[in-house]
Structures are given as C-alpha cells and as structure tokens.
Write a structure and sequence with these properties.
The protein is of the alpha/beta class and 296 residues long. The protein contains 13 helices and 11 strands. Strands 3, 4, 5, 6, 9, 10 and 11 form a 7-stranded mixed sheet that branches. It has a two-stranded antiparallel sheet with strand order 1-2. Strands 7-8 form a two-stranded parallel ribbon.
Length: 296
C-alpha cells in the first residue's frame, strides 16, 4: 500500500500537537486542509486513525502508521547525512517504549546527550515493552527480553537494582513479627500496573512463596515512593530513588539482605540499525553510569 507522505506527516502533526489546529500551524495549512488529508488517509487505510478528543489521540492503527512515518523520517535523515556529509541533521522524532523506573533514574541523562533528536516515549512495563516493538508501534524498546525479536537487534545494558521498601509505621503495623509469607499475604502491596510482577517475584525470592496480596495500583515511579513513604503499602523501588529517604528514616528496607536486580536490554529495528546507532551508543553510555553490570 502506497501512502502519501504529506498525509502521513499530517497524521504525525495531529498526534504530536494533540489537535487539528496545532497541526495546521505546524504544517502551514488550514484546519480544513488538515481534516481533508486525515479523512483521505483514513479512507485509503479503511480504518479510523485518530480519536477526535481533546487532545487528539491515536487509535491502534493510527499508532502503527505514526510509527511508520517516524521510520520514514529517520531513514530520510540518514540518507540526507550520507549524501551531504555536511548539513546538520534536523530534529527527528524517535518513538521508544521504556519503563517508568528507567525514566525516573538513568535514562534522561542518556537521552539528553542526543540534542539532535526529539523523543516520544511510551511508558510500559519492561516485561512487555517489546510487544510494542513487535507490533511496529515503536522503533526500539527497553525490555527484559534478552533474545532478539524477528527483524530486531538486541544489546545488554545492565541491571536496575530494586529494594523492597515501606514506611516505619507500615512496618510496625504489618511486619511486627517479621517479614514472612504469612505477613506478606495480608500486607497491602503497591503495584505499578497489572503487568508489574516485581513485588510477586521478590516475595518468591525472599520467602519461596507464591502469593497474591491486596494491592494498590499506582503508575508512577515517584508516586510509588511517595505512597510507600505515606504508609499506603510496601513495594519495590529503584535503589537510586531511595537514598535520601533511607538516610532520613522515612523509609525502611523490608529485607536489607534481599535486593532484586532486573536485567535491561535495548532492542531496536534492524532496518534502522545505522540510523539508530547514535541512540544505541548513548544508551550504552548511560547504562554504564546508571545500571549495574549484568556479569556481577
């Protein structure tokens, strides 16, 4: 299927600005022209691409086409660099699937070293983020999957260390007789979302038990730590976010002898290997500073 580049650019502009008006300003067109282009693209594809909400959001098919448009832009940028060798690369948008805890710790410094790009980050659990890459929604993903997806390359980055934490008051209320399988079965637990299995895995590592405790779902790394500090529940948080709270005594470790390391890998579309090489190098540099060595 051949899709007009100007129609794909219109779809990307709508989703990036969140409105037809914003897309019109970016592309120097009227809102009517933007609407006509989108309707023509939807007719050509045979599916709705944009939810007409405030802000506008993509349907699943729209997400796939927007990612396709990003790939085209990235390849064109690479081609322009190869042909000219002189002109600076324009800002290109990279849509990536990343986990919230990396975004809250080591990842921003890595991305900041690439001023020539714009980033569209999709937050998902590291255990399932590669599914978005498999569906073609993103150009690359931070994931726990070590084996490459079809048509992708993979490189190990390092391990993100987590600690099980809770407030002193929560510890006294729920673990007065120790952190055991019995007490963990009833103590309220914090969970990022339904895909987050870190707490369950830590329970098995620490006690050997398989449990389903009552839980709060809080999809925010910083909010997770705040909720634990306020005594809502216990949960797993990146060690890098805990130093101040542990020093002040506002948070405690459930088991000081039982950290949990989660390996992270970078997977990306092999077709874009050369175009994404600067990003891959930046992620490796950032990981050396912010993650633990996987071999240790």
């Amino acid at each position: 299927m051949s899709l007009p580049p100007d129609h794909l650019a219109t779809l990307s502009a709508i989703l990036q600005t969140g409105s037809f008006e914003g897309a019109a300003q970016v592309l120097g067109l009227t809102q009517s022209a933007i609407s006509q282009r989108l309707k023509a693209l939807e007719a050509r594809v045979g599916a709705q691409l944009v939810h007409r909400t405030t802000p506008c959001t993509a349907t699943p098919v729209g997400q796939r086409l927007a990612a396709h448009a990003d790939q085209i832009a990235l390849l064109e940028t690479r081609l322009r660099e190869d042909l000219t060798g002189l002109a600076p690369a324009p800002q290109t948008r990279l849509r990536l699937a990343v986990n919230a805890d990396s975004l809250a710790t080591w990842l921003p410094a890595a991305l900041a070293s690439l001023p020539g790009h714009l980033f569209d980050l999709v937050i998902d659990d590291q255990d399932v983020s590669h599914d978005r890459l498999l569906r073609g929604e993103v150009l690359g993903a931070l994931t726990t999957r070590a084996s490459p997806l079809p048509g992708c390359d993979v490189t190990p980055l390092g391990a993100l260390r987590y600690q099980a934490i809770a407030s002193p008051e929560f510890m006294a209320r729920n673990f007065a007789d120790g952190v055991t399988s019995d007490s963990l079965a009833t103590a309220p637990m914090l969970q990022f979302n339904m895909n987050d299995q870190l707490q369950h895995r830590w329970i098995t590592q620490a006690t050997g038990a398989t449990l389903s405790p009552p839980c709060h779902r809080l999809p925010s790394s910083e909010g997770f730590v705040t909720a634990a500090r306020l005594g809502m529940g216990w949960g797993m948080a990146p060690e890098a976010l805990l130093q101040d709270d542990l020093a002040r005594g506002t948070l405690c470790l459930l088991r000081a002898d039982c950290p949990f390391d989660t390996p992270l890998y970078w997977q990306w579309t092999r077709l874009l290997d050369k175009a994404l090489a600067p990003l891959t190098r930046a992620l490796r540099r950032g990981a050396r500073l912010g993650l633990r060595d996987l071999t240790k």
